[in-house]
């Protein structure tokens, strides 16, 4: 396994496997207990419409580490695993319905 220093990732460009420029690495978010990297925090490209992407309160993109396909001169992101708001809406809580009364009750 090749080891990469986190400091070397700062400002590395993020591009999807479909060729969309997402932005540049700003920071990494870690699990405090395990030390696993959870999310790449990225400064979005100025031409990217971030309305469908998951962002933090500052407008930075939150890219799950599981979406990373490769790291080199650029970081390639699997667009199928990229967290977007429309996917999260489908996964979210479902609407509760009231039980229907049986006829004759």
Automatic annotation (TrEMBL):
<feature type="domain" description="PRC-barrel">
    <location>
        <begin position="4"/>
        <end position="82"/>
    </location>
</feature>
<protein>
    <recommendedName>
        <fullName>PRC-barrel domain-containing protein</fullName>
    </recommendedName>
</protein>
<dbReference type="Pfam" id="PF05239">
    <property type="entry name" value="PRC"/>
</dbReference>
<dbReference type="InterPro" id="IPR027275">
    <property type="entry name" value="PRC-brl_dom"/>
</dbReference>
<dbReference type="InterPro" id="IPR011033">
    <property type="entry name" value="PRC_barrel-like_sf"/>
</dbReference>
């Amino acid at each position: 396994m090749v080891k990469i220093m986190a400091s070397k990732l700062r400002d590395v460009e993020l591009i999807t496997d479909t060729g969309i420029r997402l932005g540049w690495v700003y920071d990494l978010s870690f699990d405090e207990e395990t030390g696993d990297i959870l999310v790449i925090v990225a400064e979005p490209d100025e031409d990217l419409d971030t309305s469908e992407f998951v962002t933090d309160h500052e407008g930075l993109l939150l890219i799950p580490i599981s979406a990373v396909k490769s790291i080199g001169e650029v970081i390639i992101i699997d667009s199928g695993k990229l967290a977007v708001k429309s996917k999260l809406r489908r996964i979210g809580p479902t609407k509760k319905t009231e039980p229907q009364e049986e006829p004759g009750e």
